[in-house]
Amino acid sequence: MKKTIVFLIMLLCFEMPLQADYIVLSEGEVLAGDNIHQTQSVASISKVMTALVALESADVSNIVTIDHETTLQIGSSLYVQENEQYSLLSLLYGLMLRSGNDAAYAIATHVGKDVDQFVKMMNDKAKELGMNDTVFSNPSGLDEADGGNISSLYDMALCMQAAMKNEIFRMIVNTRQYAAENQRVWLNKNRLLGMYESCNGGKTGYTVKSGKTLITSAYENGLESIVVSFREGDYFMLHKRLHEDVYLKYKTVLLIEKGTYKIQNKRLTIQEDIQSLIPIDGEVFVEVLLENDAVLIRYKNLDTVIERREILT
Known about the structure:
The chain is α+β, with helices and mostly antiparallel strands. The chain is built from ten helices and 18 strands.
């Protein structure tokens, strides 16, 4: 009996291995992960792409009148009523906070004129972002009828990374409660916003086929991290731990500050700061060269020499 108790105490002293498939992405770099290119139905976290396409394609002040077909959508819903009117912005809040499948349908038909055209826009955007493991079939993530939206951890991290560059998207996913038209109030299902101060966005998902899916972002000390997980029951605690791990182990360093420079007798304009992610105790030594239409940044991180090309536009 004593041996059993001692063994149990020893187990509790060590961190148990993760059972879920997951990815941690920051500054475009994969910091950790398991089965990151394995594909499955991703359920409602695919609504990140729905929101991104809508935000890039339409004015959020547009007024959308709810039609009869919208009210027939199944699953997670805002329960909007026929002939009610909402701004596109409000429907995007309903999409991301409450995961409304009716909101997804209304957004798709408003922005794309019909669902099929909107899904094409989603797949075109996925291709643009390099989401090579992904095929979208609908704007909601439901998978009973058509197999759902198929993607990977890596691709969904790329999608969230792109979406978080949109200021309206950032505002939406970092909101805990939203008051919409028609006296509607929507609460965010992403409980990590209340559990973890650094969390600044995310989206939950679930179907029987996909299991629990979750995508979240966090920001601390100038560094943003993205975590995606599939099939993890206690997914909020998993994400909190993985985000915290990033800030314990990594920092960003400035390689080149935006501005105009003279390199190899040529004037060169850098539109945005160029940064890199390094271990918390690391230092970098930077060399900058000009190669045709690209800047070659060669830097030494501890004992590793890294080359990075930035295409000039």
